[in-house]
Amino acid sequence: MKDLFKLGIGKTEITKTGKGAVVGGVGALTYSIIDGMGLMPGALSSPDVIPYVVAGLAAGINFIRQFFTNHLS
Q: Distances in Å between the alpha carbon of 54 and those of 19, 31, 64?
């Protein structure tokens, strides 16, 4: 049974988890800055929509990060 499941907690997994946490945090920070400046539309500021807006911002930030990583290295 043990051979069927591999739980890897190695350097690669820790690095991926760390990058994901940083990208998510930057998405939340970006939302806070935009909202604090009063530039966030009211429809995107309701409590039930905020997690989706933050996730969208994080996905956009990750796309930009990947673009620069793949094209400028």
A: 16, 6, 15
